[in-house]
């Protein structure tokens, strides 16, 4: 599919309803601009004289602009003062190659601004054919909660569209952990992990939790 269709899959988070952010590759520092049918992702490639540096304000930048309809892309280079470079010197190109080799495999990564919800495309390479290829949905991650007597049941659901299966981890967290969104520290020794041999279809949080409750009976 083209990038426009990929972005239409969801425009807000199904778990907390906040808006979703678009990234290229990962949550690595980048500036993203969406205008008409073009989206650009700007990455730092460091200073010209020093070694590779993550100093965003003093760095030269490379921008990948992808056409949402054709998946074609172009590269542009900018000075630390955000001026477009019409001529790119060899040192800058070498720096770009280094970055491109480090990043290696790219993907379109769509993530919630607030919670851990995300969905991701297949991996692709940014190569000289100047097209990212047909995009497919690779995976989606949701985290849902169900209130129980002494806290919350946590459902971490990973849908792997490329493998056509879903992996669910069910654990428990306290009221305080839930309120503080402190779920990376949930280390519940009674965590249950279940793999389902199909994708758990999502219509609403309640329906999905009901479906999991029913399917668990057969596991
Ligand atoms: Zn969310």
Structural class: alpha+beta
How many helices?
4
Widest β-sheet, arrangement of strands: 1-6-7-8-9-10-11
Total number of strands: 11
Rough shape?
Answer: elongated
Head-to-tail CA distance between termini? 35 Å
Helix content: 10-25%
Q: Segments where pLDDT lies below 50 for 5+ residues?
A: none
Radius of gyration: 21 Å
| Ligand kinds | zinc ion
Mean pLDDT: 90
Please outline the major beta sheet.
Answer: 7 strands, antiparallel
The number of domains: 2
Strand percentage? 35-45%
N-to-C series of helices and strands: HEEEEEHEEEEEHEH
Report on this model:
The chain has helices at residues 3-8, 90-103, 175-179, 205-216; strands spanning 20-24, 31-35, 38-46, 60-67, 73-78, 108-112, 118-121, 137-148, 151-160, 165-173, 192-196. With 219 residues, it is α+β, with helices and mostly antiparallel strands. A seven-stranded antiparallel β-sheet has the order 1-6-7-8-9-10-11. Strands 2-3-4-5 form a four-stranded antiparallel β-sheet. It is elongated, with a radius of gyration of 21 Å. The two termini are 35 Å apart. Residues 13, 15-16, 18, 112, 114-115, 117 line the site of zinc ion.
